[in-house]
């Protein structure tokens, strides 16, 4: 079975430690720590998280990854880009304190490719120094949002891996099995999130309500011998009309993964 995780970004109003406990109590193998300020929630961790707080959180793990998304990461504006890189490098440096071995980033808003490649190179260098794997997540509407754009980045930045989020690639390309066959060998972490629509009109929806065939996706992931975490990133409460509460989402998301995985194994 895939090792499961849940992204703390949905855990609004909970402290980091309480969010982790609740996720683990619902049967997830690990937790994905959110360091990004989201439209609906503050980050659970950041460079300012104290050493003692990191140590206490580490006792509650394991943790699948740190979501270190910063919208300025690929900007041409050098001052803002370097500030975003510094923020990211601090999170990478602190990742081992949590027992985290994977950190993933995004291209960012209004990214310029050469600036983005420079940021990725600096982050990969820091990650390798601290025994951490750095993954890039292609994002709908950002400078890298497709399989081909991701492959170009992998070629330009040796050591870079991929946080495979099917929701963005579904909207951009509508071929998740093909994307996995191309990117699967480079995947260090996988998000579980459903989506509908096209680049000009899209939404993230509850698992099973969108256009992604997760049974087929899991089947191809197994063909690629993926052995990392599959982590639920629940955002349909914000991007669509999903009124379910935390307890229901946690239970139903894990059940969805296990059912889809069982079907994938049955062929």
From TrEMBL:
Pfam families associated with the record: AP_endonuc_2
Secretion signal, residue range per the UniProt entry: none
Alphabetical keyword list: Isomerase
Listed name of the protein: Sugar phosphate isomerase/epimerase
InterPro entries linked to this entry: IolE/XylAMocC-like, Xyl_isomerase-like_sf, Xyl_isomerase-like_TIM-brl
Record bears the keyword Isomerase: yes
Origin species: Rhizobium grahamii
A GO molecular function held by the record: isomerase activity
Ranges of residues in domain Xylose isomerase-like TIM barrel: 21-259
């Amino acid at each position: 079975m895939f090792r499961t995780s849940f992204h703390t970004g949905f855990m609004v109003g909970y402290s980091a430690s309480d969010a982790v406990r609740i996720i683990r109590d619902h049967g997830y193998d690990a937790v994905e720590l959110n360091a990004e300020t989201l439209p609906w929630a503050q980050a659970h961790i950041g460079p300012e998280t104290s050493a003692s707080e990191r140590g206490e959180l580490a006792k509650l793990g394991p943790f699948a990854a740190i979501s270190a998304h910063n919208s300025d990461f690929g900007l041409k504006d050098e001052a803002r880009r370097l500030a975003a890189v510094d923020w990211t490098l601090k999170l990478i440096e602190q990742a081992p304190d949590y027992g985290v071995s994977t950190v993933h980033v995004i291209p960012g808003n209004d990214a310029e490719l050469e600036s983005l490649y420079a940021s990725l190179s600096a982050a990969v260098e820091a990650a390798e120094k601290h025994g951490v794997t750095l993954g890039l997540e292609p994002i709908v509407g950002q400078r890298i949002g497709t399989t081909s754009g991701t492959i170009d980045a992998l070629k330009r930045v040796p050591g870079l891996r991929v946080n495979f989020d099917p929701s963005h690639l579904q909207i951009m390309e509508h071929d998740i099995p093909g994307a996995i066959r191309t990117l699967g060998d480079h995947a260090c972490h996988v998000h579980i999130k459903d989506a509908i629509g096209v680049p000009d009109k899209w939404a993230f929806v509850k698992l099973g309500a969108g256009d992604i065939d997760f049974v087929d996706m899991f089947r191809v992931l197994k063909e690629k011998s993926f052995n990392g975490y599959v982590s639920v990133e629940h955002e349909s409460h914000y991007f669509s009309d999903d009124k379910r509460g935390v307890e229901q989402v946690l239970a139903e998301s894990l059940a969805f993964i296990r059912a889809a995985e069982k079907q994938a194994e049955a062929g």
